[in-house]
Amino acid sequence: MAFVPQGQTESARRSGNGKRLLIVSAYFPPAVGGVESYVLGLAKAMSARGCRVTVLTTGSLGLKRPAQDAVEGVSVLRLPVLFKVSYTPLHPLWPFWVRQFLAREKFDVINVHTPVPGLADLVAAQSPVPLVVTYHAASLLKDDARLLNVLISIYGLVERGLLRRADQVLAVSPFVADRLQERSGRTVDVLPNALNGRLVAPVAHRLREQRFTAAFLARLDATHGWKGLSLVLQALDSYRQLYGVLDVDLVVIGDGDSRTRYEREAEALGLERFVTFVGHAEGARKFDLLREAEVMITYPTTANDAFPTVFLEAWASGMAVVSADIGAIPSVVADGETALLARPNSPIELAQTLRRMAEDRGLRERLADHGRARLVDNFTWEAVAASFDHQLDELIEARS
Questions:
Q1: pLDDT tens across 54-106, in order?
Q2: Which residues belong to any copy of the Glycosyl transferase family domain (predicted)?
């Protein structure tokens, strides 16, 4: 595994040299999610380096034919979706459209993002140029979904073919890289999640001694219940029962088909005064909301999160982080230095961790400062794109 953004060679700093790069992702903004944010950030950073970038993705269910648009200056081709299996979009005409598109556009290199099955596998099978596979999850398996897990296991056969075809395999965290390497036998390098360096706010510590505002940022839909909002609400209730007071106000940023259920859960626990649902927010409004809070709570119940973008957004906003000791998270943060980690699936332990935050303003400030420094040193798109650009040049040169 390799990714060292500091001390780059001169060749890693050079421009993208006009190479034509196709990035493939099942979903892309305005769709919301960690993979979507990663792909947009990478596409913009590679464009800034001089690459000619196109993103191939899917459109809404109502789209009838392939359509072109642009997102923040990035050229996008969206393919129609006829139906979905769980979170996987599909259409029987994709092979025809993809074949036409690749024949017409003549890309120099293709980067597919997975593990959402379907589109990435199809493009990889038809790729006539160097292929880079970027993997975003430690596991696709889901709790309490036996039939779906059977289908996912069968898809593993297709996935092995995808990884065999790849000229290079990347993962977004060391945890994901290790597990993918174990099951595939391929060398897997790390190209981590990142954030635009210009989003990093100047340090501005809050003045409150004990009571603080925390933020929870996620999609509030049924497919993302594993993000753990129900457990966070239970932790606030446990906090009040354990300590006779609740020193935490929670702002929930996000929307989806489960929002009403979460609002009812908060009401049933008597938390209406302490929990505010503000709906979906992006761009400047999202960061304004984050900068009004002191602590980011992210508490996933499974190992699905490969590298939570919310960590970077929190550190950029001067926030401390509280999370779960699960999956990739311990490989991304240092417990007690850049975040506090609680035992997963334990509302009581999460409540105790939040109490530590409430009782020690200095701890909140130290965690925020160390997290911000880690972001600036390691996780800006400018540094990540420079490394990726160099890797692509080597792949293209090896094929020529």
A1: 999 999 888 999 999 999 999 999 999 999 887 789 999 999 999 999 999 99
A2: 205-373
Q: Is 391 in the same domain as 356? A: no
User: Mind giving me the DSSP string for 16-51?
Assistant: -TT-EEEEE-S--TTS-SHHHHHHHHHHHHHHHTT-
First to last CA, the chain: 25
Structure tokens at 262: 């979460």
* Strand, coil or helix: 212: strand
Model confidence pLDDT, tens digit, residues 132-186: 999 998 765 555 556 554 555 555 556 778 889 999 999 999 999 998 999 889 9
In a shared domain, residues 18 and 137: yes
Show the tokens assigned to 213: 């505002």
Most confident of 118-127, 209-218, 236-245: 236-245
Domain-located, residue 2: no
Check which CATH number belongs to the domain holding 21 and give it. 3.40.50.2000
Identify the DSSP state of 114: E
Same domain, 99 and 178: yes
Q: Is residue 337 a contact partner of residue 192, using CB atoms and an 8 Å limit?
A: no
- Domain limits for position 60: 10-194+380-399
H-only helix segments in the chain? 10-13, 34-48, 94-105, 119-126, 146-165, 174-184, 229-243, 259-268, 283-291, 309-316, 329-332, 347-359, 361-378, 381-399
Q: Supply 99's token pair.
A: 């074949």
